[in-house]
Amino acid sequence: MLYAVKMDVAIPRDLDPEVRAETVAREKAYSHELQRGGEWVHIWRMVGQYSNLSIFDVASNERLHEILWNLPLFPYMTMEITPLAQHPSDIAVES
Ligand SMILES: O=C(O)CC1=CCC(=O)O1
């Protein structure tokens, strides 16, 4: 199941800089692990924003929830989640 997830990050300005750096480093490592495992298919920076647009390919709604809930930056994020379906004009799937 494919999902587009827009993540807007808003880390409080007064967060301890060490906690901030450590949380961002854990977020990166967690993201890399899921990318290597094939569930986090794409991550794009949204120009001019502390936001990303990501594509996930996961087995279920529950699995996506688990992944997102465990993001180290989850407490500082707002997300918009869009389930994706094949488009009939996609030449990659046209028969
Ligand atoms: O910087 C972001 O957009 C938040 C984020 C998600 C995965 C990652 O490494 O950073």
UniProtKB/TrEMBL annotation:
Pathway the protein takes part in: Aromatic compound metabolism; beta-ketoadipate pathway; 5-oxo-4,5-dihydro-2-furylacetate from catechol: step 3/3
Span of domain Muconolactone isomerase: 1-90
Keyword Ligase: no
Enzyme type, top EC level: isomerase
GO MF assignments: muconolactone delta-isomerase activity
Enzymatic reactions: (S)-muconolactone = (4,5-dihydro-5-oxofuran-2-yl)-acetate
Alphabetic keyword roster: Aromatic hydrocarbons catabolism, Isomerase
Domain of life of the source: Bacteria
Pfam families, A to Z: MIase
E.C. number: 5.3.3.4
Subunit structure: Homodecamer.
Family under the similarity heading: Belongs to the muconolactone Delta-isomerase family.
Protein name (record): Muconolactone Delta-isomerase
Organism: Ornithinimicrobium faecis
